[in-house]
Amino acid sequence: MATGSRAQFSSKFGFIMAAAGSAVGVGNIWGFPTQAASNGGAVFLLVYLLMVFVLAYPLLVAELTIGRHGQANPIKSIQSIWPKQKIAAAGLGIAGMVAVSLILSFYGIVAGWLLGSLFAPIFSLLGLESAATWVESFSTERNLVMMVLFMLITIRVVRSGVTDGIERWSSRLMPMLFVLFGLMTAYILTQDGASDGLAMYLIPDFSHLSSDLVISAMGQAFFSLSLGVCSMMVYGSYLSKNTNIPKTAAQVALIDTGVAFAAGLLILPAMFVAQHNGVEIYDASGALLSSDTLVFTVLPAMFDTMGSTGIIISILFFVLMVIAALTSSISMLEVPVSCAMEELNKERNTVVWWIGGIITLVSAIIVFNFGDLFGLVITATTVYAQPILALIFALLVGWVWRRDQLLTEIKQGNPELEQGLFWKIWPWYVRVVCPALIILVLAS
């Protein structure tokens, strides 16, 4: 497909908000604070920040560069840097699409729970207690209805295209997310018990430092930036050639890390406010209770202790969570949609409904076989597929892509790059250090 006919982000701000939206998801706002609370707070934060810098950022530059070079879907973009192995390259693009579609299939279920938690206090305010109980209670019917509703919202945004859908909504939702974060954090920090959570989060206790903590932080940094599943490759393909990729990637990584940091500032103090209000958060051995359902148990319990103020805070918090989930889900759906549009030469509207429908069907199968499939799909995609694909992308950029072609591509938008420190370090770093770190994660 010719570059001229390809959709592009209309502004640098739009791209940064969309890419940050893809990176900022439930993993940042739920996963990161939970990991921090389980791994000694401040020590985990420090190691996480280090991992974003030493592992996630160099890989983010690599994926964006592949995408912009190809100016096409992941299959064609990977083939453009690996022309001698077109079938293997196509296989990699397809693997990325399958992985991201499977991630979206479980993500839609979790996002449905968030929608339920958002509707519950609204129904309570309206006096619809039985409806409030239903949307909050775990059941196959509730999981199915809420997941379908969330997937319909995602399909609706992606159907509108890159500029009118993804860029427009990311540019609206991300600033709203930042404002909500600021308001809620300011409120929580005024509550009794918040200072204990703040101390745990900001004052390091190095007795918690361990190899397991380092591996957890590396994994969290990795997944929070949407690496290895072609999302950033697709977004890179919508970038104009005069974009400075290393600088833009740094801005996306900083926003993503800033949101994770802000989530910790909100949720760790909130946990200790909950504890102050009589909610148990740690067991006798000091392990975090209900770490996987922290957002659905500990925080609502805290909101309940705040009376009518708690209802408003609860609604705002879950609006925040749904926004974070939606900005990620639209980037995930865009990966297979962009591929099918170009490879099959079909209209966006048709492709979005077909692919969105298939992913929704897979989600429904997981809902009906929840005990067997939910954990399995999460492990297969995030623990194995994502790091393995990111490892292969790093090897392709480091060892397969001709160095002069790579330099020509990345210099566009930054003509002085060749003389700077970035070009002296980044190529061999992606070639040697990133693969070694990913293999370490996989080995663990």
UniProtKB/TrEMBL annotation:
Lineage: superkingdom: Bacteria
Which positions, given as ranges, span the membrane? 12-30, 42-66, 87-115, 144-162, 174-194, 214-238, 250-272, 310-331, 351-371, 383-401, 421-443
Its ancestry begins with:
Bacteria, Pseudomonadati, Pseudomonadota, Gammaproteobacteria, Alteromonadales
Keywords from the UniProt entry: Membrane, Transmembrane, Transmembrane helix, Transport
Q: How does it sit in the membrane?
A: Multi-pass membrane protein
According to its UniProt entry, this protein's organism is Moritella marina ATCC 15381
Task: Please give the NCBIfam families that the UniProt record associates with this protein.
Answer: Na_transp
Report the PANTHER family cross-referenced here: TRANSPORTER
An annotated GO cellular component: membrane
Q: Which SUPFAM superfamilies match?
A: SNF-like (SSF161070)
Q: Which InterPro entries match?
A: Na/ntran_symport, SNS_sf, YocR/YhdH-like
Instruction: State its location(s).
Output: Membrane
A Pfam match is SNF
This protein's name: Sodium-dependent transporter
- Tell me, in one coarse class, where this protein mainly resides: membrane
